[in-house]
Amino acid sequence: MMPDLRIQQAFVVADARGARVVTRSDEFDAPEAERIAVLFGRRPAGVVCPLAHFACPFGKRHVAVVRAEDRPGPGDTIAFRFLVLARDLYRHLGDPFAISDRYPVDWHASGTLPLLQWPAAPLPERTLEELDSVLNTGDTGLLLGATQALVDGNRVLVARTGPDEALARGLWKLLPDRTRADLWAASFAFSDELGLHFAIMPALPEGRLGPGVLAEESVRDYPQSRYELHLQIAIESGDRAAVRRLLARRTTDDAIRLALYMFVFAVVVAVVFRFLI
């Protein structure tokens, strides 16, 4: 079944007075966008945000892909461009950075914004060359450790003085299709209030991190496991088929769901066979 390809959009401005929608598409949920902009957090002193992206749930049936930038204005003004799409469409795409990149932003837009339309085509397949570039130009230890930690169901928080688009984008290229479509990431956020699976922040929450939440040091020391190891080997050996299989791997939830389907099917077959006998 074809997912809903329509994308709603809005611009939100946040400053010391709070967050407010300044322009939007028809039927756009303004209160939900303002709530998310507030959860992005209050700006710490001296911190700038020239460009950041994040993705998070938007109500029960939609996902928000958000671009955030410092903008001229009173106080510490930051502007957010919201793209809101159906969850089914997001599960087919899974890459908030590629989604945002497809639609250039016009911060001077006014009036009612038009609905956007995603083309009836998937994102281009990730290539071995792309993944090789990610590992060769990025922080390999952090990237691979964070990849395995997220695949294993952990959250990862990294402290930086400003946005790190390269780290977030590179990490999302290394994750399996199904995993990244179910996780939420931010290349920068002022706080952890959004509860994202991966976030870069000016400072980590005070005190001990909760269970299943890993900081950078723990991620670098994260035990090497199957996905991370096999992906690195496949990339370094130039094995395109293996890279393709790894990126298309099922998640643990998928495996459990498949096992349940098979069990139910076996029970039904057994009941029918017994009835016929």
What do these coordinates show?
By secondary structure, the chain is α/β, with parallel strands linked by helices. Residues 251-273 have low confidence and may be disordered. It is built from eleven helices and ten strands. The protein has two domains: 6-117; 128-252. Strands 1, 2, 3, 4, 5 and 6 form a six-stranded antiparallel beta sheet that branches. The chain has a four-stranded parallel beta sheet with strand order 8-9-7-10. The longest helix has 25 residues, at 252-276. Helix 4 packs across helix 6 (165-174) and helix 9 (226-237) runs antiparallel to helix 10 (240-247). A hairpin with a 3-residue loop joins strand 3 and strand 4 (62-70). The chain has helices at residues 30-39, 87-93, 96-102, 128-137, 140-151, 165-174, 177-182, 216-220, 226-237, 240-247, 252-276, and strands at 6-15, 18-24, 52-58, 62-70, 78-86, 116-117, 155-159, 185-186, 198-201, 213-214.
Layout of secondary structure:
Elements: E1 6-15, E2 18-24, H1 30-39, E3 52-58, E4 62-70, E5 78-86, H2 87-93, H3 96-102, E6 116-117, H4 128-137, H5 140-151, E7 155-159, H6 165-174, H7 177-182, E8 185-186, E9 198-201, E10 213-214, H8 216-220, H9 226-237, H10 240-247, H11 252-276
Parallel strand pairs: 7-9, 7-10, 8-9
Antiparallel strand pairs: 1-2, 1-5, 1-6, 3-4, 4-5
Helix pairs in contact: 4-6, 5-6, 5-9, 9-10
